[in-house]
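Hi P.,

Sorry for the delay on this. The queue was packed all week, but I finally got your sequence through. Input first:
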Amino acid sequence: NNFSLLAKSRIYYNLYNSSASDIDDVSTFFSLWVIKPTVAHKLRLGIPLTAEEQKLNRDLGISDTVEKGLLPLPLAQQIAREYQVIQEETHGFQLTVPTVGVDVETLHPLPGQFLILTKISADPGDLSGDLIKVAVDRDYVSDYVEFPTWALGATPAIALGKDISCFIPALHELRIKLKAGTS
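Then the structure:
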């Protein structure tokens, strides 16, 4: 399900139809991380360094460490080092989703901390016409991200076995909602 591409300036995302006829109502989703590259990232990707970065590279021997494969750190390690994980939790719910939608859970961090939603999965619903969507609010942004659950799999066993990896930080509030509809 997950694959990783690395790019310096552009990523193209194209869909191709190899069948003999048009396919209607195709939905697709992708996620993208955009980072400010460190000196190590720039060296690995062949991006020119500024004069200040060149001095830093010489003084600290960053290029030697990049050549050894020790830098740049894999993203999971970098996040773990930059953000001390105090606690990890998994929450599960089983509920009826009315057409007006339902708030599944609202979480608030303790003072001096913040929350990061790292994975989410959901059941696609029982009927082929069900259109259940997961929506996530963060801080003061309503529906920061929203996606239909059918994209996770045709059956609950398949869908609930697929986590969507994400990195959604919240300083004040993280709310997970389910919406139902027919379109």
